[in-house]
Design a protein that fits this description.
Structural class: alpha/beta
Strand order of the largest sheet: 5-4-3-2-1-14-15
Number of strands: 20
Largest sheet: 7 strands, mixed
Strand content: 15-25%
Oligomer: single chain
Helix content: 25-40%
Shape: elongated
Radius of gyration: 26 Å
Length: 538
């Protein structure tokens, strides 16, 4: 019996940290070799981090990558016979490629250039790379291994070329970002384009947060019949070793899938941890209001960073309810974070006094509401400047969609944790987190949501119920449905008209919002590029 062991690495690369990423690969190689691995597959662009974006327009980036790759090739001599697949950008004869090199025994045994360059959603690889054309295979222990990169396997052509070149097992480094339902889609597509051609598949995916993108890992392996024989962790770094016996992958135990809420929560925690730590912030600040959005953001921040790196600031106004203060104090005690209360009433009075003559004879309206939000934003940013901690904003996707947020107020900050979380999903995530341990007081979840910027204010005074708002937003913004299609789905015409109009009108606000974690297949970020100035109505 011929046996080959294949290590799959879910590593957390940092974009541009060439030496650090190389050190990670080398450490994983030591671990793989200690377990008898013959092949180790790292993710797409593992050496450079993914996506490098316009770093790929700088010749120096390719030059430094080549130097680090050469050193890594020499360092891997310490593990004789181990074939390590390393993803990296590569320049050759003036052309630039998304490449994978097979390093073994101080040599480059094979090199593959990605064929299908995605240029939709969050991807714009045609901006940087030229497409490869040739199949790449290598033989080890009597088995022929082919290489594809990520998007190649979402179509049949590149796997077919590998098959025609003799591949029995397809090794696929990936930089596949997370969104809800993504793993089921991956399995479906891999079976359609790879398993159908009679090849086993090793799918090694990146893990980690990169600005608004989350790479969830969830690496897996399928045998030649499309049966899953390995499933790796969600949103965790990990190395797993598979055994190939006479060309057949031996099955491993497949763990039960985790809930959607657990997936999303883990993605949010990972996104916060990596954004804060990779950018070198000493900690985070956030405004705590006694409402459900800031409560969820606080819980995520504590789980990501530890309570010692989180500071919550309550900034009551004349309209802040006593129960908001009580519930905020309760929650911070449960979590053990530093908590301070700074009344904005003196500042608010000073603003109104300054504007008294200008506004004489005019009724109070959203102007005064927004002043309160902007005072809070100013205080948080002042503390951020003084202490170096980044401000986490607490607005959700529903609010961002319709502009129920204040520019330079509650939108002020550096990272928007729940920017892609609809309000109805916020409640589900709070319930999920409390199943682990009850850190969010129940009254925060059950009381009607309110911005508390005027007496007895409720969100539903000026917005439809969130179940309706979120449904319309999802169909219009995420699914590109027309207003007529949304009405046909059962939503009231007036609600559809109002919500879609608000989405259009508030594009200017969203362009000025901090980046935030993407967990749907279409977020208000790099995959939403609507013009601010536009007269179009479908």
């Amino acid at each position: 019996m011929t046996t080959t062991k294949i290590a799959i690495v879910q590593m957390n690369s940092t974009v541009g940290d060439l030496a650090g990423n190389a050190a990670q690969i080398l450490a994983y190689a030591a671990q793989a070799a200690s377990q008898g691995a013959n092949i180790m597959v790292t993710p797409e662009l593992s050496l450079a981090g993914y996506p490098p974006e316009d770093l790929l327009l700088r010749p120096g980036f390719y030059q430094q990558t080549a130097l680090v790759l050469e050193k890594l090739k020499q360092d891997l001599i310490a593990y004789p016979g181990l074939h390590v697949l390393v993803g990296h950008p590569h320049e050759e004869q003036g052309a630039y490629y998304n490449a994978v090199s097979v390093l073994a025994d101080g040599q480059i045994k094979a090199r593959y250039f990605k064929h299908n360059l995605p240029n939709n959603m969050v991807f714009d690889e045609l901006r940087y790379f030229q497409a490869g054309q040739e199949a790449c295979v290598f033989e080890l222990n009597g088995t022929v291994f082919g290489i594809n990169i990520c998007e190649d396997t979402w179509f049949s052509a590149a796997p077919a070329k590998a098959k025609a070149a003799g591949a029995q097992v397809l090794l696929v480094p990936n930089g596949s970002p997370y969104h809800m339902g993504k793993q089921d889609l991956r399995l479906q597509v891999m079976r359609e384009h790879v398993s159908s051609q009679g090849m086993a598949l090793i799918y090694a995916n990146l893990v980690g947060g990169q600005d608004e993108l989350i790479f969830d890992g969830n690496s897996f392996a399928l045998d030649a019949q499309g049966q899953q024989v390995l499933s790796m962790e969600h949103c965790k770094e990990e190395l797993a070793v598979l055994t190939l016996e006479d060309g057949v992958l031996r099955a491993n135990a497949i763990p039960a899938p985790i809930s959607l809420e657990a997936q999303i929560y883990a993605a949010l925690v990972l996104g916060v941890r990596d954004y804060v730590n990779k950018n070198g912030f000493p900690g985070v600040l956030l405004g705590l209001s006694g409402g459900v959005d800031s409560a969820l953001t606080l819980a995520i921040a504590c789980d990501a960073l530890g309570a010692d790196k989180v500071r919550a600031i309550m900034m009551p106004s004349p309209y802040t309810a006593d129960i908001s203060l009580t519930d905020s104090r309760d929650m911070v005690q449960r979590l053990g974070v530093r908590y301070d209360e700074l009344s904005i009433s003196p500042c608010f009075d000073a603003f109104r006094a300054t504007l008294q003559h200008e506004f004489q004879g005019l009724k109070e309206d959203t102007t005064e509401e927004n002043i309160q939000a902007r005072i809070r934003g100013t205080l948080l940013m002042a503390m951020s400047n003084k202490y170096g901690s980044i401000v986490l904003t607490t607005g959700n996707k529903s609010e961002m969609a319709v502009g129920y947020c204040t520019l330079y107020g509650d939108m002020a900050g550096g990272f928007a944790v729940i920017k892609d979380i609809a309000k109805t999903l916020v409640y589900r995530l709070c319930a999920y987190r409390n199943q682990i341990s009850e850190v969010i007081p129940e009254r925060i979840i059950t009381r009607p949501p309110s911005a508390e910027l005027r007496p007895d204010q409720k969100d539903q005074d000026s917005l439809p119920p969130y179940e309706i708002l979120d449904g319309i937003m999802r169909m219009y913004m995420e699914e590109n449905c027309s207003r007529a299609e949304i009405v046909a789905a059962g939503y009231a015409y007036d609600d559809v008209e109002r919500i879609t109009r608000l989405i259009k009108l508030n594009e200017y606000k969203r362009r000025q919002a901090p980046i935030g974690i993407r967990i749907t297949h279409r977020a208000f970020g790099r995959d939403w590029r609507h013009p601010i100035t536009s007269k179009f109505r479908d």
